[in-house]
């Protein structure tokens, strides 16, 4: 069975900020045929991108390399940075003004995963738009469990 996918990639240095990453992501989302009928999924993606890019900038002190890939059933949002230490969701205190990024991703994505590679790590979140058939050949993702 042939695999058809479409994707985009761009690096966002710390000085570009998350606003540009969100704007770039929205421009590419608007080219996909399902986004007009799945505003909640689009909103979830646009909430996740700034969280992951911010994590790369703040915690890894590196550029964020953002890749969007639509494989026909899942939009994969991947952000790579230069820190090989894998993140773990942690409870944020009620007084903390940060520390909720992965909890947000966990709440809005259909699944997410983090893996280290030589010189860094990548966090990938999967978003399945509603009313899209999930072909049996689609990869199985956990439901927002981090695996």
Topology:
Blueprint: E1 6-12, H1 17-29, H2 39-59, E2 64-70, E3 75-81, H3 101-108, E4 111-117, E5 120-127
Antiparallel strand pairs: 1-2, 2-3, 3-5, 4-5
Helix pairs in contact: 1-2, 2-3
Task: Tag the structure with descriptive keywords.
disordered C terminus, five-stranded antiparallel β-sheet, 147 residues, alpha+beta
What report would you give on this structure?
The protein is an alpha+beta fold. The protein has three helices and five strands; from the N terminus they run βααββαββ. The protein has a five-stranded antiparallel beta sheet, with helices on one face. It is globular and about 35 Å long.
What is the number of E strands? 5
Question: First CA to last CA: what distance?
Answer: 26 Å
Mean pLDDT: 85
Main sheet overview: 5 strands, antiparallel
- Percent strand equals 15-25%
Helix content: 25-40%
- In sequence order, what are the helices and strands, one letter per element? EHHEEHEE
């Amino acid at each position: 069975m042939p695999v058809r996918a479409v994707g985009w990639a761009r690096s966002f240095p710390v000085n570009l900020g998350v606003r540009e990453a969100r704007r770039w992501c929205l421009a590419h989302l608007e080219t996909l045929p399902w986004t007009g009928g799945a505003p909640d999924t689009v909103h979830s993606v646009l909430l996740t991108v700034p969280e992951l890019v911010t994590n790369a900038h703040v915690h890894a002190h590196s550029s964020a390399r953002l890749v969007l890939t639509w494989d026909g059933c899942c939009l994969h949002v991947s952000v790579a940075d230069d820190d090989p230490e894998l993140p773990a969701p942690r409870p944020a205190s009620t007084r903390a003004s940060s520390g909720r990024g992965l909890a947000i991703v966990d709440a809005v994505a259909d699944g997410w995963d983090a893996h280290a590679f030589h010189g860094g790590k990548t966090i990938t979140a999967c978003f399945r738009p509603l009313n899209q058939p999930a072909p049996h050949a689609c990869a199985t993702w956990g439901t927002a469990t981090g695996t």
